[in-house]
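ping. complex inputs:
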Amino acid sequence: DAKTTQPNSMESNEEEPVHLPCNHSTISGTDYIHWYRQLPSQGPEYVIHGLTSNVNNRMASLAIAEDRKSSTLILHRATLRDAAVYYCILRDPRMGAQKLVFGQGTRLTINP
Amino acid sequence: EPEVTQTPSHQVTQMGQEVILRCVPISNHLYFYWYRQILGQKVEFLVSFYNNEISEKSEIFDDQFSVERPDGSNFTLKIRSTKLEDSAMYFCACTGLALYNEQFFGPGTRLTVL
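pong. complex structure:
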């Protein structure tokens, strides 16, 4: 699996935007960029994914660099409930329903 | 919204005992997984299961571990003879056939081996 690099931790304030970076310089042309998060004492949950174009859903936005070697998960208006560990994971859909390979992720702290 | 359920939420057992962790995946999903997370560490893949057989397993998933779908709805993880180092959160996950194969995780079972 291609490797991703994320900061160990980040901190932000409630109701402010949060930009969580991920570097994936060895990404292949068929790898999708997936983001999952793990709230305290819960299982991981899917956040968003993309291939080349920026993506938006009800939870977040994903901005993908033109060369695809990095991406940024954007929480537009963080709430206390967004405090979690965020994981950036590369997945190749040609591999079918393959396992997720989690790194250490970024621990996001939200200050009230 | 459909969800994955796991029972029990917390299991305490003595070293050497057998434990069975249970999961009810989302109905009509076809791929099933077990992951574990030792306290303070990252989530690790254990095994994936499709069409009633193991499709992939990690080095962690040794002969002490087994999985089955006994009745077409439950998905179980059995540890035959638990060790202290098996203490962890165990997460069940499942996925359908979507192109991006989003995985849905259960809330986990905390296993404590004494």
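Chain A touches chain B at residues 32, 34, 38, 42-46, 49, 91, 93, 96-105 (CB under 8 Å).
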